[in-house]
Amino acid sequence: MAEQTPAAPQRWPYVLGCGFAMGAADVVPGVSGGTMAFILGIYGTLLEAVSGFDFELLGLLRRGAWAEAAARVHLGFLVPLLAGLLGAVLVLVRPITWLYVNQPALLFAFFFGLIVGSIVLIARHAHWGAAGLVAMAAGVAAALLLVTRTPVTMPHDPFTIFWSGAVAIMAMVLPGVSGSFLLLVLGQYQHVMEGVKALDLATLLPFALGCATGLLLFVRLLSWLLKRWHGQTVALLMGFMAGSLWKIWPFRTVLESTTNAKGKLIVLRDALAAPPSASALAVSLLLMGLGVLLVLGLERVQQRMGAAEMGG
User: What is the mean pLDDT of residues 25-49?
Assistant: First the structure.
């Protein structure tokens, strides 16, 4: 896909909205905040910003080179992005988890359209070849392997929460692979969501530290891959997104389930199902279409903003 350049400081309202969209997506098991970053055209900037947190940054801070340090981590980009992301998690965790429980078909139909639209968008910009097709197939296979895993029972001690956060944040950065879903697989999703609702620091602090650790390590690897094998890495990411559609299909049948200590139903295994009625299919197709149109519309907005900045 086309290179995504750092967002200009005057675009902070757009970046704030991008962060809000990423946070909203990360709350839902099966949907990736990285996908939203891809869709919204800020993925490259996000990787650059996170990669800036290194020993060179510490040297700049020790010398008091505040302006250079801020530029290295794209602080004017990160601050509104994180503000939007955290705001979305705090504001939307209740309504989105309610939709996830009570209206999952409608929620996932819309996200299905978003992901299909982003795949179409990326395919239009990707450079294809044999290596790219192999990388895309590998991405599809890896995503399917992840999203078809059965959730396991894990303890909720600080160390387990720490490494679960590190694993989840890696998935959140990858388009198509949901960090929330991996938390579900690791048996930590409900515990972490309850911690967010209650602002439980005993849960949130080790989780946040794990996220920070995983993010700093994984983003460097991904940035290196994009610089060394850009076309193949983009194809791999596109495969991840395509493979994740299995988990986002809105109509499912539960094969195996259990209840947690609070009596809430936990799905262990499920499978694809046909729409229960023609009206349900029509509503889902409408929401999918809206998702696709939203992605393509956002691309037009980005192009116009880029043209305006070039003209300015």
Answer: 77
